[in-house]
Amino acid sequence: MQNISSQTLPNPQQRQRLRRWRGVKDGVTRYGVGAGGYSVIVALALIFIFLFVEVMPMLQSGKLTPATSYALPGAADKETRYLATDRFREVGVRYDDAADVTFFSLKNGQVRKRAGAVLPEGVETTAFSAASPRERLVAYGLSNGQAIVMEHDFSLKFDQQDVREVVPELSFPLGEEPVVVDDRGRALTALAVQTGRSSTALAAITEDNRLLYVVYRATVSFMTGEVQLRRESFTLPTPSASPDRILIDDTLSTLILSDTAGKLHYYDVRDPARPDLMYSVQALESGGEVTALEYLLGSASVLVGGSDGSVAQWIPLRDDENRYSLIQLRTFEPHDSAVVLIKPEYSRKGFLTADASGHVAIHYTTSHRTILKESIFPNPITAAAIAPRNNAMLAVDSTNTLAYYDLRNHHPEISWQTFWGKVWYEGRSGPDYVWQSSSASDAFESKFSLVPLTLGTLKAAFYAMLFAIPIAVMGAIYTAYFMSARMRGMVKPVIEIMEALPTVILGFLAGLWLAPFVEANLPSVFSILLLMPIAMVLFAFGWSRLGPKVRAMIGDGWEAALLIPVILLVGWACISISPMIEVWFFDGSMRQWFTDSGITYDQRNALVVGIAMGFAVIPTIFSIAEDAVFNVPKHLTQGSLALGATPWQTMTRVVLLTASPGIFSAVMMGFGRAVGETMIVLMATGNSPVVNFNIFEGMRTLSANIAVEMPETAVGSTHYRILYLAALVLFAITFVVNTAAELVRQRLRKRYAEL
């Protein structure tokens, strides 16, 4: 024995080498595990930093940076009536009150081209109007009741070296000769112009306070190709006070008029032969006058500036009787002096205002923000413009000095209110939470509320957990504590293999098979939810009443196998009697009964998502909870049984308390899985961003929204960064939930550690 021991036991040198090797392995393991833990923390921090870096540009405020200033080219003694620039900020255009047009270089003011209209002898311009900025259409009203319509444009030309040149052009859509507006030949004191698909409309106020509406329709001769103009003239009812400003919307269907009493008048001119003054409203209660009036992009809102410096947005609102009225939607930061002009942006719902003291301000309607407000001149501002790409601003004062500014205003659409508050959008009857990020037209008002997406995420997770927690936790308890070892060895791996099922397959089956099946068999779904637990309880009660010999034939822990035919039988019976239940209780269609009762039912809804996503979450909760129950120390359960407790008492009073931290962790892991799920909710919800917890309606989640819209959004756009903000919100939700869950788990662990 001594010889064998001396041969098998290591000598002192070998023991020393083994101790060193074990120390090396312990050190590698200790530092490796520590490095892995710190790596996870660093990875999470880097994800947060990356998301925040993409979101941070939205937090930057607007800024005006002076670029240059010079005397505006053209007649110095003429007032500038209109100012614009091309999209590359190379060429500007000036219209003065003599109907002369000057194109000039924005960098240095060098004249590029002079053009304009030839006025009849002895005739002067008495009114001016510009259509929406995208149309580039202007009109001059003349003292003889005529009008001249002009249109500027900027075409591109490239030389052999592919150097771009912006070529200014001026055209006359209605001809170079003035067109007749007032047949009586009275001077036009106010004018509005707008163009439609094949017609151009002019609305004018004459010096004797008549309101005229003239439509010129262009027709092309099929034989000669000549363009012929057909004129239609109408006289509209005039309000009692003297009208002074007038607007036509871009559909040529409505007309807005302001008067010297500070009122707005809303006309329906879809049939100009039968015009309808639908509504009149007092725009300025302080007794001031309307000093600026413009349509916002899309002509769904009208912007009103007052002599008291006020700036407001008004929209037409339709009542239950299909009658429109004008209501003040929102007001903006006022100016210190009278607002002299309003200029809407080309492609967004923003606009610029200028006042008589030389200040300009830039506002955005949807976010209800005044982006910036600065003093540009000591003199009144007579004309201003925002570049088509919203990256530059031009302003001219009463001395015809032009100030050219670089403008940084990348994300004016966003604010805390647009993300998390109710917003009153154009065309809606009241404020609401809406996500509708894109449309086919720039005139569309983007709606970026994150409330429907966040609520949809919680809604999907809630119904999934409502379905998964009872099945997974109770199944884990039974499998770990009551089931036989042999059966547990078959059941546990099968359920864990379920976790490997691709969620895209589950979403595919949920959307294309489960959703139509549930809709066609609604009574069976509710029958199964009601009758299945009752059948299982009755089976357990009947089993407990059988004699010991019969129960011994099956063996302890194998009772669950006998439940399989019971479950199949009850499920088959519920599906079979579903048509009869519909006939007996729901007039033949439970789906239609819901609709008739005012309950909205979508085929792809939260019920389908709860079942499908619950099926995906069950393996996660089951596996962790089952391990937690199974790993409860045996001496606790054996001691409880030895003291006379039943297995059920031992389970409820010892095992569950001891395993509660693990079970709680399992539930939280399942919740995190449900919150971050993408493919199932993407394919089985209908992706409708609604704000409710109706189990029969769909939803849109944060993760699904990111997956759907990220490939189609422009990099660096507001929409793009808001999707990153949605990812940050999702990250924050999971982080907060997991942190809170860990705190609760630690308290439970500490509380029951002494058992």
CATH class of the domain at 451-751 reads Mainly Alpha
Q: Averaged pLDDT, please?
A: 89
Number of strands: 31
Known CATH architecture of the domain at 451-751 = Orthogonal Bundle
User: What's the name of the CATH homologous superfamily of the domain at 451-751?
Assistant: MetI-like
Tell me about the biggest sheet?
Answer: 5 strands, antiparallel
What is the radius of gyration? 38 Å
Explain what this protein looks like in three dimensions.
With 755 residues, this protein is α+β, with helices and mostly antiparallel strands. Among the domains are: 119-282, Methylamine Dehydrogenase, Chain H, CATH 2.130.10; 451-751, MetI-like (MetI-like fold, Orthogonal Bundle). Helices cover 39% and strands 27% of the residues. The chain contains 17 helices and 31 strands. A hairpin with a 6-residue loop joins strand 6 and strand 7. The longest helix is centred in the first third of the chain and has 44 residues, at 12-55. The radius of gyration is 38 Å and the shape is elongated. The mean pLDDT is 89.
Helix and strand topology:
Blueprint (H helix, E strand, L loop, with lengths): L1 H7 L3 H44 L7 E9 L8 E6 L5 E6 L3 E6 L5 E6 L8 E6 L6 E6 L3 E13 L5 E8 L7 E2 L7 E8 L3 E8 L4 E10 L6 E10 L6 E6 L5 E6 L3 E6 L7 E7 L7 E6 L6 E5 L4 E8 L5 E9 L6 E6 L5 E6 L3 E6 L4 E7 L5 E6 L5 E6 L3 E8 L7 H5 L14 E2 L10 E2 L2 H32 L2 H14 L4 H18 L1 H23 L3 H7 L4 H18 L1 H8 L4 H7 L9 H25 L3 H9 L4 H30 L2 H6 L17 H8 L8 H34 L4
Antiparallel strand pairs: 1-29, 2-3, 3-4, 4-5, 6-7, 7-8, 8-9, 8-10, 11-12, 12-13, 13-14, 15-16, 16-17, 17-18, 19-20, 20-21, 21-22, 23-24, 24-25, 25-26, 27-28, 28-29, 30-31
